[in-house]
Amino acid sequence: MQPSSRIRAILGGGASGWEVVHRARKMQRQGVRIIDLTVGQHEDPTPAPILEAMHASAMGGNTRYSDVAGSSELRAAIAERAAARTGAPAGPENVVVTAGGQAALLHAFMATLDAGDAAVMIDPYYVTYPGTIRATGGVPRITPARAEAGFQPDLDALEAACAGARVLLVNSPNNPAGAIYSDETLDGVAEICRRHDLWLISDEVYDGMAWDQPHRSPRALPGMAERTVVIGSLSKSHGMTGSRIGWTLAPEEISALIATYALNATYGIPGFIQDAGLWALREGEAIEADLAGTFHRRRDIAMRALAGRQAVRLSPPQGAMYVMVDVRATGLSGRDFAERLLEEAHIAVMPGESFGASAAGHLRIALTVADADLATALTRIADLAETLAAERAAAG
Ligand code: PLP
């Protein structure tokens, strides 16, 4: 008997860099104090009022099977939020509640790709994208966004990659780059989707974390609501990573397919988690603003800490909970730099290479430690980069 090859095919090859995370964890277990800037997760647990809503719901008996697509109240609240944020009308019939943004991505690809269809994605990218596309039988087709262009995709290269594809996947505010797509990029993306008759999957899980300009969704652009699936989540916005609650916002026909898949995949999300999510959406505005404000403040700390430092360059950090630091002046790869940083300074960061070739020679820094630790870590990163760059210059 042979096990399925489908799951093994998900692995693909590709992303590296988890060695740094594993080594950091091992050092922590041995008692070494590490400043851990690897994983995109708040340092504090889910805010207490959200947990209280969850507790009250569970104790009130909401522990049975739930509506597979999500409760009507939650779908309506998500639609209301999405309409406000994407600028295009939405109703509960457009929403399916999923186990986090990750399951929303899988459901969205399941509903839009057939086996062998190409889905275009932009490098650097969130690590699960290629595997999620492959899990549906789709074929990831990767096109670069260069650091020199602030990690905005080159529209001509993007259009060339989209020829014959079925889906285009974009993510703004972006993990890992911290970039936000410009109006020109978003208009270009929409134009490409219309011209090549593509589904657009727009991952907007960081929609509340746009620092210098309001978030704009490509769903609001002409002709796009009927071809766009927006991916949403309460993981980052409300500190609910462990609750696994997210959604797809899609045309009704696609939502119906997604609900069919959900029926067979999860049979719905726990009712008490949904009620906690409903509370978060209805009453949790201050919580969301507070969490986002923390990352905004830390973005500013990062900019101040690295300003004027010679061997490091910060890509314009415009949103999400990350900054991307260019260490190519040291001559080291992101991975080699990250390894030395861990050994010598006890700071753990993700090598840029983990997110695709376009982020080679960079470090992704999650802004997920206390302000003082972040400032210390960035100073040590800049110090190490300057030492390495000086050694390189001396060696000629
Ligand atoms: N999309 C992006 C860009 C992410 O960074 C993440 C998580 O880090 C997700 C989707 C999945 O988020 P979750 O499944 O926790 O909602």
Give the structural class. Answer: alpha/beta
Assign the CATH class of the largest domain: Alpha Beta
Look at the structure and name the CATH superfamily of the largest domain: Type I PLP-dependent aspartate aminotransferase-like (Major domain)
- Placed side by side, the strands forming the largest sheet appear as 2-8-7-6-5-3-4
Give the helices and strands as they follow along the chain: HHEHHEHEHEHEHEEEHHHEEHEEEH
- How many distinct domains? 2
Instruction: List the ions, cofactors and other small molecules found in this model.
Output: pyridoxal-5'-phosphate
Describe what you observe in this structure.
By secondary structure, this protein is α/β, with parallel strands linked by helices. The protein folds into two domains: 19-45 and 286-387, Aspartate Aminotransferase, domain 1 (Alpha-Beta Complex), CATH 3.90.1150.10; 48-283, Type I PLP-dependent aspartate aminotransferase-like (Major domain) (Aspartate Aminotransferase, domain 2, 3-Layer(aba) Sandwich). Helices cover 44% and strands 14% of the residues. The chain has 13 helices and 13 strands. The protein has helices spanning 5-11, 18-29, 48-59, 72-86, 100-112, 129-135, 155-162, 183-196, 252-265, 271-283, 285-306, 334-345, 371-394, and strands at 35-36, 95-98, 118-123, 139-144, 167-171, 199-203, 228-233, 246-249, 313-314, 322-326, 347-348, 350-351, 362-366. Strands 2-8-7-6-5-3-4 form a seven-stranded mixed β-sheet, with helices on both faces. A four-stranded antiparallel β-sheet has the order 9-10-13-12. α7 packs parallel to α8 (183-196). The protein is globular. The N and C termini lie far apart (59 Å).
